[in-house]
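User: Teach me something about this protein's shape.
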Amino acid sequence: MHLRSSLASINNVFRVAACAMMLAGNLAVVAPVLAQEGAAPAAGGEAAAPVKVEHTLMDRFHEGGWVMYPITACSVALIWLTVDLWMRTGLKKMAPQGHVAQLQDLFRAGDYVGAYQFAKANNSPFCDVSRVALSFVGDGEEAVENALFTELNKVNSTITTRINYLSVIGVCTPMIGLTGTVTGMMSAFATLGTSGVGDPSKLSGAIGEVLIATASGLFIAVPAFMFFYFLRNRLQSAMTGLQDVVGALFRKMPYSHLKDAHVGEEEFYAAIPNWVAGGEPAAAAA
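Assistant: First, the predicted structure itself:
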């Protein structure tokens, strides 16, 4: 259901963008014709030769208008999130070989307190999940399995939230570009309404804002969606590997020997009711 809704939103974004590009393209075709009709003929009745103007990247940036600033911010966020999530979603990052080997040795030696201390001192999803599960070994196998399930979901949810930001960028950047398209078209029509076709430079500048803003938004949105789906699949694969590694670590745990053992350092707040500890009857306590 989530995939279907995402594809539907992508389809709607690109449909609107295509309509805007067609309208802007029509405006770009009509404007030079109007400019040529309104231009004064050169001396001797000969038309002036067109002058080819080279545009730099900064020129294109300024032609795009004010929307280029939020689009640039989105592009920086896209690069940062992609690199960060690529590192986070690797199995070697989520379950480093050194951490796995050390905890396996401690489990073989039966040193569960030492394993808890090692997991607490090292920062990785594998150590976090193992530490939480070790703190429940005294409560039995079912409690450990529930702790593993909860902690794995927490790790998956944390990284999935960051991956979803790529989808937000992919949806928002075309809309920002379309906003620039609308404002550029408004400026172009305002130029036609006030000065007619006597100043082609103003008209071409407005048309440039229309086209560049839309193209820039789509240029950021396409890789954002590609990285979103790629990293989401990469995370699912890494979570499967992490679950297998942790599950193998806690397999065949001697729960009968660990009953009521307190391996972790968490403080327990639940105690015997005060009327039982003080010898007071329940009715009096009530």
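Now, about its shape. The mean pLDDT is 78. The chain has one domain: 2-38+69-261. If you'd like, I can walk through any region in more detail.
User: That's plenty for now, thanks!
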